Amino acid sequence: MNVARDAIFERLSAHRRDVERTPLRRMFADDPHRFARMSLKLDDLLFDYSKTRTTPETISLLVELARACDLEGRRDAMFSGAKINTTEGRAVLHTALRAAEDARILVDGQDVMPEVLAERRKAAQFAEAVRSGALMGATGERFCDIVNIGIGGSDLGPAMAATALTPYTQAGLRGHFVSNVDGAHITDTLRRLDPARTLVLVASKTFTTLETMANAHAARGWLVGALGEAAVGAHFAAISTNVEAVEAFGMSEDRMFRFWDWVGGRYSIWSVIGLSLTILIGAQNFQAFLDGGREVDEHFRDAPLDRNIPALMGLLGVWHRNVWGFGTHAVLPYDQRLARFPAYLQQLDMESNGKRVTLDGAPVERATGPIVWGEPGTNGQHAFYQLLHQGADVVPADILMAALPHENVGDQHAMLLANALAQGEAFMKGRTTEEAAAQLKGAGKSPGQAEELAPHKTFPGDRPTCAIAYRTLDPRTLGRLIALYEHKVFTQGVIWGINSFDQWGVELGKELASRLIPVMKREAGAEELDSSTRGLVDHLLALQGQ
Ligand code: F6P
After folding, report:
1. Using a 6 Å CB cutoff, which residues line ligand 1?
2. pLDDT in tens, 344-361
3. Which of these, 319, 308, 339, 307, lies nearest to 464 by C-alpha position?
């Protein structure tokens, strides 16, 4: 129990009742400097939170809350290599993976940086050799298809980033990402590929994950079927913390890329899990990606909390989740190549903060991580924005936009940005019933018709959004964006007093699946199962038998 924290939550609730009296459009009208006061810049990257229902007092209270929860102390503990992942007894050091070459970071008294740098160099050399054609397949052909087999953090990061950084991909190289244990995924991926020109990267922190191992064996079979057993060494590489399991898979030392247990799966894109991305975009661009992450680390460590972008992102999330009771958070990139960013953030946020007990195992006293979801704009506008504008639930959202596109297609970038800005404005301002009626009358409706239709055309407004605007989606910016959200999630975990770095909630389903596999393979009976699961098993097996 944190008495100081609870007292500030009380004050925040009282403060909400004050804030609620003033609509956002009024706040803007009353304060011409609202945007200047409520936006922050990190070089070209602008974070605008002026369209949230906050005042300077809200921010001071939220900063007080952060202090009462020792956000700064917890942050420093994370960066220093303390074992803050207490349920697994591990340090949390994805920040070391993007740290400067001269950094010294100790875990159990050992500086981890020499190993980090050695592995980074090994991956860079391997990637460059693939890109230049110095490293070829067993038949002497250049690799042109890079297949990453992994799931969760061993898939979402590289898959999302490869799409985001498409313009930086070397011509002639294509990335493919296979994750699902559904055989359709590997089948549809490999069907289009030539084994002689395919490099397969098996990415798994534990190297035991069912999906990844099954797909890796399927890919091995496909390759051996075409090129023979002797070709495996030339066409496979492994990325893992589990050296023994990689060796058992038959991979040689030079084809093994390592990382460490202090890198959480969902934080591993910065490690050699980024090898597929490094091959696609090159070591120099991957370094720029790491540099972007490091810039945000420095900002998170050095900026005062009321001018600290990730800390404010986290605190505003707490304001929305706990004080207003909003249950979900939407991520709306007006940047098509960030199409997988919401899915990436789902794992980052929901696997980190989807927790119901505090660090000491007591039930949490208030709601924790929201449901995170989203789709790129403008597509979402024609799908779910109806609910965002007029639905019964309020969904706080982040709107992401780049000033410069990579390609100019007519005026389309101007159209894209105009839409992003218009949505933020509409969420904030809404449209009153009087305005709707006036507009209807102006369009020729009778007063009666206008009155009847006006409620349907009313927008409540006051729907909070934050905007993140940057020059262009380059490797450095992608690194900055990911690190911003990582530290946002960290900030929220500290306020809620939970462990953001374990994921026990994925275990039960895995355990039950391992009991059900023999049942579905007809090697074990279904007698022990509950009647629903047994009924489903019987139905599926009967259909298979027909
Ligand atoms: O979904 C649970 C999880 O452990 C994630 O945290 C992780 O990213 C994913 O599975 C994949 O695990 P691995 O990299 O060990 O195969």
Report:
1. 151-154, 204-206, 209, 212, 265-266, 351, 503, 506
2. 999 999 999 999 999 999
3. 319
